Amino acid sequence: MTTRKLIYLIDDDPDIRGLVGEVLGSYGYEARTFAAGRDAREALRRAAPDLCIVDLGLPDMDGLTMVRELWEDTRFGVVILSGRGGTADRVLGLELGADDYVVKPFEPRELVARVNAVIRRREQLMAAAAAHEECGCRFGDWDFNPGDLTLTHADGRREGLTAAEASLLMTLLKAPRRVLSREQLQGDDLGRDDFAYERSVDVRISRIRKKIEDDPREPRFIKTVYGAGYLFAADVHWRGPAR
């Protein structure tokens, strides 16, 4: 029997919790809901979900603070669900590590589609790693393991990636020294014309650069090709069949 994916919903609106919990359940997910960040933190210590949906207007803390905390744990994805619909809020949410951002009021099926996309992205990365025990690659002094979404430096440093970051990095690593457009890098966000989501590739590139570049302002690995997209400018050595 297939184990149902576990989703945590953190939102102080009981109507939202009821609606989203019911909809996720109808699509085969196990949903656990929390009215406050404190309660969700306690639950996270006991069991890690596959994904967290976080409202920014929590009663006991700033939701962005929780998003930042969740981003540090690469075991699950993060989707923001908020009434703050401005471009600045959406870009900030993505910059802090959210995999996606859904604005209230929302169409429940759209939220489910966004949840599906984040979980699918993570499962694809894990499947790529499972295809071979040694799947992964090396570039410069970095070793990338898509199975646990980590980068390991030759000096022992480790950096965690979100599923969205790892998926984008994988796309670049599969096409070294080729210019890829934002559309090619958008993946599950392809087709959106919303400015915040057009910016999502740039935001994730920036986050990856902060982890792998000695000087993110003068990147050695991920180069910007103005008017065209991005290029991975180093040799990539694969250990398994990911290419």
Keyphrases for this structure?
243 residues; alpha/beta; Rossmann fold; Arc Repressor Mutant, subunit A; 2 domains; five-stranded parallel sheet; five-stranded antiparallel sheet; globular
Helix content: 40-55%
Counted up, domains total: 2
Question: What kind of sheet is the major sheet?
Answer: 5 strands, parallel
Strand order of the largest sheet: 2-1-3-4-5
What is the number of E strands?
13
Helical element count?
Answer: 8
CATH C-level category of the largest domain: Alpha Beta
CATH fold assignment of the largest domain: Rossmann fold
Give the CATH H-level superfamily of the largest domain: Response regulator
Tell me the β content. Answer: 15-25%
Tertiary shape: globular
Secondary-structure element pattern, one letter each: EHEHEHEHEHEEEEHEHHEEE
Whole-number mean pLDDT: 85
| Unreliable sequence segments | none
Can you name the CATH architecture of the largest domain?
3-Layer(aba) Sandwich
The Rg value, from CA coordinates, equals: 18 Å
What oligomeric state do these chains adopt? single chain
Secondary-structure class: alpha/beta
